[in-house]
Amino acid sequence: MFATIAAHPAAAAVTLRQRHSLRARHPLCAPVGTAAPRRLMATGRLSLTSALANKTLEGVPAVLPKLSFPILVNSCTGKMGKAVAEAAVSAGLQLVPVSFSAIEVPDGKVDICDREIRIYDPSESEQILPSIINDYPDLIVVDYTVPDAVNANAELYCKMGLPFVMGTTGGDRQLLKKTVQDSNIYAVISPQMGKQVVAFLAAMEIMSEQFPGAFSGYKLEVMESHQATKLDISGTAKAVISCFQKLGVQFDLDEVKQVRDPQEQVALVGVPEEHLSGHAFHMYHLTSPDGTVSFEFQHNVCGRSIYAEGTVDAAMFLYTKIKSGANKKLYNMIDVLREGNMR
């Protein structure tokens, strides 16, 4: 039995055909690339949406009101940061013309959507941010920097009283959450900003909470592929693995197969060559103790638009929570999804 969730369906079919080296396919397993499984996949997505709606969306408006508030993207020199900045402008938000990055750029600035963004070294952030806060009331920061900077950046935002969306993975996540809770600052922290992938994560969490131990004794294999510049294990993979562990599977993070070599990504994983510099492919394969039953979950993303749009939704969600004076301060993307106000 195979259950596949793919943001890039053609790539998913190639992946499953080519990925023989991960494990031998059981003869009873039906191929995923046929017409019938596609119809089943569509039904599954509708069922998931309906289940989440029935569970959480009572009385919540379907669309966000038109919002406009200042947003500072840290750092705009990275591909993800640039994609978020472009999505923010497209959504009508006020992109603050300042960002911080250790990467040197010509003339110390970058152009995003015909806007000039001045780039400062991170060491200058504590001196520069107070004037930015003064000039841009209601400012929200989006962080897409590097794993090593996660905790220090969060401490700085909290010290400055800046609500933020943490899209950067890595760092000490427990310390990150504690920093926010101790400071009483509003924040959205999530290892995954893609809305549809978050729905899959929500379903996994519901399953692990309601059916603990359902996969006891099963063997889990995990392979994740990202662009070569991604240094850490996928935060999404960690979250899914945590759910499988609650379902009774024994698995350590050092067993994750990380694929970062472009040739292997094309030949083994099935990543389209045009997306080698920006993709996120995840495959989870479960096999019963006697080898007669198998499950496969897969979510493949090419490009960065799914994360950029989700990040902007998270910033809008956070802004509305701040304005409403919500008692809860720390959120994740499942909270954003459950609100039902996705664009």
Verbal overview:
This protein folds into 2 domains: 70-194 and 305-339, 3-Layer(aba) Sandwich (Rossmann fold), CATH 3.40.50.720; 195-303, Dihydrodipicolinate Reductase, domain 2 (2-Layer Sandwich), CATH 3.30.360. It is α/β, with parallel strands linked by helices and 343 residues long. Mean pLDDT is 84; it is low at 1-62. 39% of the residues are buried. Strand 7, helix 6 and strand 8 (187-189) form a beta-alpha-beta unit. It contains 11 helices and 13 strands. The longest helix is centred in the first third of the chain and has 22 residues, at 35-56. 41% of the residues lie in helices and 18% in strands. The protein has a 6-stranded parallel beta sheet with strand order 2-1-6-7-8-13, with helices on both faces. A 4-stranded mixed beta sheet has the order 10-9-11-12, with helices on both faces. The chain has a 3-stranded mixed beta sheet with strand order 3-5-4, covered by helices on one side. The two termini are 34 Å apart. It has helices at 9-18, 35-56, 79-90, 125-135, 150-160, 173-183, 195-210, 235-246, 262-269, 305-324, 333-339; strands at residues 70-74, 94-95, 98-100, 109-112, 115-120, 140-143, 164-166, 187-189, 219-226, 257-259, 279-287, 294-302, 330-331.
